[in-house]
Specification:
By secondary structure, the chain is an alpha+beta fold. Helices cover about 25% and strands about 45% of the residues. It is built from three helices and nine strands; from the N terminus they run E-H-E-E-E-E-H-E-E-E-H-E. The protein has helices at about 20-30, 75-85, 115-120, and strands at about 1-15, 35, 40-45, 55-60, 65-70, 85-90, 95-100, 105-110, 125. Strands 1, 2, 3, 4, 5, 6, 7, 8 and 9 form a nine-stranded mixed beta sheet that branches.
């Protein structure tokens, strides 16, 4: 058995448009923007989605939205999603990048939440 939950909704934005996207989404959602010092490609929109991280991510790709699913067993969660019809497209460090049916990207990552949040909000899978 393992546990997982939606950890983040990311607004992937071409690098050249990142500053404008951050300003727009911060104002649209009423959420202060805070760049992540250790990962400068991410700017968190603080409390835009309570309980879930919302962030603008600078990418060298087309604009899109994607979700990160955090789990206490990356391999088991990846296999579960593959069995549901996702296709693995890449792996970056501990992140498994999948494409869900319909074409949406999904990243499966190790737990990033504080332990109490993860315990309270994660679902258990066989």
């Amino acid at each position: 058995m393992h546990r997982s939950r939606v950890y983040a909704v990311l607004i992937d934005t071409p690098e050249a448009e990142t500053a404008d996207a951050i300003a727009f989404w911060s104002a649209a959602l009423g959420a202060p923007a805070r760049q992540v010092p250790s990962e400068p490609q991410f700017t968190v929109l603080h409390e835009a989605l309570p309980g879930i991280v919302a962030a603008v991510q600078a990418v060298d790709d087309a604009p899109r939205f994607h979700i990160d699913i955090e789990t206490d067993d990356v391999q088991a969660e990846t296999e579960r999603l593959l069995a549901l019809g996702a296709v693995k497209t890449a792996q970056w460090l501990d992140c498994h990048v999948l494409r869900a049916p319909g074409g949406h990207p999904v990243c499966v990552i190790p737990v990033h939440s504080d332990p109490d949040t993860f315990k309270a909000l994660a679902r258990t899978w066989p």
